[in-house]
Design brief:
single chain, 170 residues, mainly alpha
Length: 170
């Protein structure tokens, strides 16, 4: 069981770090200036909402890190129970993993909906929709019976889930 948990957590952390490494690579605003955050400000340009984008991307990165870790933990449990032929426990872990995906979708949708950058709002909605779709896909987790299956299935999914937001935040 430890092997499965480690594999899920490690793959999630690696993909998350690669997808949302904007905190250190974001283009700063002009030296000594702060982007306005007032609702009464004139129509924002890309430069004027850079600080907000950085903040929202940081929040989304936290969601990816913490909540996907919870998803990975439940997925690891599911695999371990399936390998041990404990169907009831595996089903409970699968439901918990699906609930985590739904939670991630809701949080991403909420955080990015408040972003000033329309591209980030759009990307957040796309990522959230992909997480929601996966949470509802009953066949998705049924395919994962072992850590080998996990590697095949999850790597492509992680990329699909993270790519819209990573394209703006990365």
């Amino acid at each position: 069981m430890r092997r499965a948990l480690l594999a899920v957590t490690l793959s999630g952390a690696l993909l998350t770090t690669a997808a949302c490494d904007d905190a250190e690579t974001a283009t700063p605003t002009a030296a000594g200036t702060t982007a306005p955050t007032s609702a009464a400000a004139p129509a924002p340009s890309a430069a004027s909402y850079a600080a907000d984008t950085k903040k929202v991307c940081g929040q989304v990165e936290t969601i990816f890190t913490a909540d996907l870790k919870n998803f990975g933990t439940n997925l690891g449990r599911m695999i371990a129970f399936r390998e041990a032929k404990q169907a009831d426990s595996a089903d409970k872990a699968e439901k918990a993993a699906r609930a985590e995906l739904k939670k991630v979708a809701e949080k991403i949708r909420k955080q990015t909906a408040a972003a000033q950058d329309p591209e980030l709002r759009k990307a957040g909605a796309e990522s959230a929709a992909k997480f929601s779709k996966s949470a509802q896909d009953s066949a998705l987790l049924d395919k994962i019976k072992s850590t080998k299956d996990l590697d095949k299935s999850l790597e492509g999914l992680m990329s699909q889930w993270l790519t819209p937001v990573a394209g703006v935040c990365g």
